[in-house]
Amino acid sequence: MTSNQCFEIPESWLHIELGDVVDYGKTTKVEPDAIGPETWVLELEDIEKDSSRLIQRCTFSDRKSKSTKNAFNAGDVLYGKLRPYLNKVLFADSDGVCTTEIVPLQGNPAVYGRYLYYWMRNPIFITYVNQVSHGVNMPRLGTDAGKKAPFILAPMPEQKRVADKLDTVIARVDACRERLDRVPAILKRFRQSVLSAATSGSLTAQWRAENHREEDWPQVQLSSVAEEFSYGSSAKSSRTGAVPVLRMGNIQEGQLKWTDLVYTSDPMEIAKYRLKAGDVLFNRTNSPELVGKTAVFNGEHDAIYAGYLIKVRCSDRLLPDYLNYCLNSPAGRDYCWRVKSDGVSQSNINAKKLAAFEFLLPSVREQNEIVRRVRSLFAYADTLESRCAAAYGLVESLTPALLAKAFRGELVPQDPNDEPAAELLKRLANQRSGEGKATKGTRAKRAAPVAPREEEPTSVE
């Protein structure tokens, strides 16, 4: 068994090369001046990697392309030969033209188009093309290598059954993936709703009623309940050292992430910028969407903070976690958006503007209850997020598993009445041979009146 024949297949199937049945690399070129304004123009970026989902459909009038294109017809398999590890394959549902980095392949009496489409998404084919592609930064599958690619030929009726079954089951997988894709946005909205309720008083309204606490929630400026607003270190850090230097990238989703760290060993810097548990870190410079993100330092590790961060130290009236919730809430994000100063590519919020932030301040006792409830709800959201990620991983593995199963002959039952693949190829070869003889005979008959000229040599020495 060769490297292309690495697993068992039904007796009526064949291990062959793609070029035995498909004219890989044969294309019809079209110049821009011959393309109609409403013609579909497909580029590689229009195809989503791995899923082969069409992201967008543009016409020639949309793109106004100036380069030569490959023409294709409805029913063609469109294979992205550039960076083939991206696994971009599309089954054309209408005629059009595409970049020359996409190779149109046609079905024929030996190969059913959708069967070919699924084979080119098969892990075996992908592994092969990744091994033989040439080019370091922009690898491509060459024509000769494409023709020598492994191919599993099934009887034609079974090719159709396999393709039909894959259409059904992969559509279900794609539907499941689309639903899971919506979960992160739903959880983000949930967390924002929790913060909005937590910082407006609605989250603990029942708690106040049960505890007979009719306390006011006065509106205060941060400057009145915080003791310190300090900018971080501007000294250069390194990848190794004694103490981590927390940067804006370490603030993610209202928490500190202890990854991608840089360090310092300068004792003066460490003494000046050392953080204490309960310090709130505010990102003062970032993109317009991210400036103002905030997290609480809980003393997990000894650390200092970098210059794009502002350290806020709260008074006894304000819990750090509650301030974190306020600044990360929809109202807090809206405040940051309104007061930021925009530069060319980044925005800035200075300590003065941060100190002027106004929010509702309940009692410390109620702040503690708010923190407890928010942590509980966020833990629930985190659990759902983890389960979603695990489910997404399973879904991502389903399509390759289904494709592998399909091309082992295990997805649909074999029909003993199907013409075996070997007989199919033999029959088609005989048909071509018969057509060739007929064509040759016709040509000979037409050429008969022309006698060879004796002065013309029949061989060259």
From TrEMBL:
Query: Superkingdom of this entry's organism?
Result: Bacteria
Which keywords does this Swiss-Prot/TrEMBL entry list? DNA-binding, Restriction system
Q: Which InterPro entries match?
A: Restrct_endonuc_typeI_TRD (IPR000055), Restrct_endonuc_typeI_TRD_sf (IPR044946), Type-I_RE_S_subunit (IPR051212)
Q: Which GO terms describe its molecular function?
A: DNA binding
Q: Which SUPFAM superfamilies match?
A: DNA methylase specificity domain
Q: Does the keyword DNA-binding apply?
A: yes
**Positions with biased composition (Basic and acidic residues):** 452-461
- Looking at the record, the residues that make up the Type I restriction modification DNA specificity domain are 215-385
Q: Which family does it belong to?
A: Belongs to the type-I restriction system S methylase family.
Q: Provide the protein name.
A: Type I restriction enzyme, S subunit
The upper taxonomy is: Bacteria, Pseudomonadati, Pseudomonadota, Betaproteobacteria, Burkholderiales
